[in-house]
Design a protein that fits this description.
Layout: H1 2-13, H2 17-31, H3 66-75, H4 80-86, E1 94-96, E2 104-106, E3 112-114, H5 121-130, E4 141-143, H6 155-161, H7 168-175, H8 177-188, H9 190-205
Antiparallel strand pairs: 1-4, 2-3
Helix pairs in contact: 4-8, 4-9, 6-8, 8-9
Pfam families: peroxidase
Protein name: peroxidase
Catalytic activity: 2 a phenolic donor + H2O2 = 2 a phenolic radical donor + 2 H2O
């Protein structure tokens, strides 16, 4: 209850926190291991080692194809349906311009070229205004969901149907017959999204859980106890 109240209070002050926490949990579970109300098992132990080299091979890049994403998910015991459902986390949060600005470009005269044909041209034009040339220092961020960026809802899937998925990896879900029908279902039924999210999210939090003498309870979150 203390953690829940603390997170809720912090989120009231900074509405971007839920998206950041979701991203943190996703990366933590994959590397080392708003909406629906989910009872999550607590007491996950910390790892004793942490190597930067372990991060990139174990997480999804925004430029990934569906096959590349499915390979990473499958290695963690997650299905294609889990992939589509957990991608719904992009209904909140923000992204740096560098994670999607390779999908379009402006020539010196300001003419727009949409490199990724799965991206809506009008949306691409909006993104060029939000991400001016040279915005690569991380200071500029864009909402993953341009419609309801602070609500955990199924709007993410609805914008995919409009070809306004921010990332190439988002658009891949709509463009492939293996996942398109699930996107359509979740776009049309928020209750179904919430139900599926609860199941897939619990599977995610159970990846690589350490028990008995594995891992430790850190005295300082940022450092193993032997440091």
């Amino acid at each position: 209850m203390m953690v829940k109240d603390t997170v809720r209070s912090a989120s009231d002050l900074d509405p971007t926190i839920p998206g950041k926490l979701l991203r943190l949990l996703f990366h933590d579970c994959f590397v080392e291991a708003g909406g629906p109300n989910i009872q999550i098992p607590t007491g996950r132990r910390d790892g004793r080692i942490s190597f930067a080299a372990n991060v990139r091979p174990n997480i999804i890049d925004t430029s990934f194809t569906l096959d590349e994403m499915a390979k990473v998910f499958s290695a963690k015991g997650l299905s294609m349906d889990d992939l589509v459902t957990l991608s719904g986390a992009h209904t909140i949060g923000t992204a740096h311009c560098s994670s999607f600005n390779d999908r379009f470009k402006l020539d010196p005269n300001g003419n727009l070229t949409v490199i990724d044909s799965s991206l809506d041209r009008q949306y691409a034009a909006q993104l060029t205004k939000m991400c001016p040339s040279g915005a690569t220092d991380g200071s500029v961020t864009v909402s993953n969901d341009p419609s309801t960026p602070l609500l955990f809802d199924n709007q993410y899937y609805r914008i995919l149907l409009q070809h306004k998925g921010l990332f190439q990896s988002d658009s891949a879900l709509l463009n492939d017959v293996r996942t398109r029908n699930r996107v359509l279902e979740l776009a049309n039924n928020q209750d179904s999204f919430f139900e599926r999210w609860a199941v897939s999210f619990l599977k995610l939090t159970g990846i690589g859980v350490k028990t008995d003498d594995e891992g430790e309870i850190r005295l300082s979150c940022s450092l193993p106890n032997n440091r």
